[in-house]
């Protein structure tokens, strides 16, 4: 385990000099099976695996849940050890953002869709911290989950634009038995809300079937999905969008594979999910 940036960097430099490849899984901690699946994928693709635990303050808005974000470092370290992680990087906030820090990494277009509309500045925080972590860890590849599809798209574009020479690998969404996408925020749900939250998956799978059956109108598909979710108590829809999976721009008709993405509050917790729809 490393807390100091120079220690983490030295570890990676030594690995590279010895000819070892490095996979990296950045997380905000409070690990669950979804995170562990990313680690498993990373281990299969490289000689050594590094995981970071860092709750990044710059990706939280003023009315979001930074102060309440769940943390359990001891449990996380136990899980990483069981997963066979070679190094865990746990930096302090003041080390990542020291006094006088002033640089922000921002993308022009991809950040302006989906969650970027209701969480201004969020993806600037994500892009900035990921840039810093990649520079410190110096991996050959980094693994991100497809549940945060917009985040994955933004990081891929950022790495391409900045010539970082790092492979960005996407890993499939890991779901509970009833379809709920695994998320650290699920712990905020009450027992009733936990059952209600399955409406996201139900709306996505129903939409996928509509498209398979020949429905091509985005308005009709999203209207049906919204009805499915709105019928469930304690739900508030932030957005339901069908878009181009490359640009994240809205489409009007389904003529090829498209991404259906949604953000829904179930009580207070804001949950996101997505699914590819293919005619």
Tell me briefly what this model is:
Helix content is 38%, strand content 18%.
Would you write up a description of this structure?
The chain is 38% helix and 18% strand. The strands form two sheets. It has a five-stranded parallel beta sheet, sandwiched between helices. A three-stranded antiparallel beta sheet has the order 6-7-8. Helix 6 crosses helix 7 and helix 9 (199-212) packs antiparallel against helix 10 (218-230). The longest helix is centred in the middle third of the chain and has 16 residues, at 122-137. By secondary structure, the chain is α/β, with parallel strands linked by helices. It folds into two domains: 5-171, Rossmann fold (3-Layer(aba) Sandwich), CATH 3.40.50; 184-272, Pantoate-beta-alanine ligase, C-terminal domain (Pantoate--beta-alanine Ligase, Chain: A,domain 2). Helix 3 (73-82) links the parallel strand 2 (48-53) and strand 3. The mean pLDDT is 97. It has helices spanning 5-17, 33-45, 73-82, 93-96, 115-118, 122-137, 149-161, 191-196, 199-212, 218-230, and strands at 22-27, 48-53, 87-89, 141-145, 167-171, 235-243, 258-266, 270-277. The chain is built from ten helices and eight strands. The protein is globular.
């Amino acid at each position: 385990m490393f807390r100091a940036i120079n220690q983490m960097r030295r570890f990676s430099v030594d690995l590279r000099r010895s000819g070892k490849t490095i996979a990296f899984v950045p997380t905000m901690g409070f690990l669950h099976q979804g995170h562990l699946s990313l680690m498993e994928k990373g281990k299969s693709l490289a000689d050594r695996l590094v995981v970071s635990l860092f709750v990044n303050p710059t990706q939280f808005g003023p009315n979001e849940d930074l102060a309440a974000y769940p943390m359990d470092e001891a449990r996380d370290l136990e899980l990483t050890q069981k997963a066979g992680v070679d190094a865990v990087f746990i930096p302090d906030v003041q080390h990542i953002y020291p006094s006088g820090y002033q640089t922000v990494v921002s993308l022009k277009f991809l950040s302006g869709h989906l969650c970027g509309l209701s969480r201004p500045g969020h993806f600037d925080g994500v892009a900035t911290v990921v840039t810093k972590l990649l520079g410190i860890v110096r991996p050959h590849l980094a693994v991100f989950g497809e549940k945060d599809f917009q985040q994955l798209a933004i990081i891929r574009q950022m790495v391409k634009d900045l010539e970082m020479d790092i492979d960005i690998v996407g890993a499939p969404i890991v779901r509970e038995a009833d379809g709920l996408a695994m998320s650290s925020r699920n712990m905020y749900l009450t027992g009733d809300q936990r059952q209600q939250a399955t409406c996201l998956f139900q709306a996505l799978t129903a939409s996928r079937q509509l498209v398979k059956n020949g429905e091509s109108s985005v308005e009709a598909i999203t209207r049906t999905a919204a009805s499915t979710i709105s019928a469930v108590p304690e739900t508030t829809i932030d957005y339901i969008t069908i878009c181009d999976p490359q640009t994240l721009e809205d489409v009007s008709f389904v003529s090829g594979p498209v991404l259906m993405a949604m953000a829904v509050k179930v009580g207070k917790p804001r949950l996101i999910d997505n699914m590819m729809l293919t005619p």
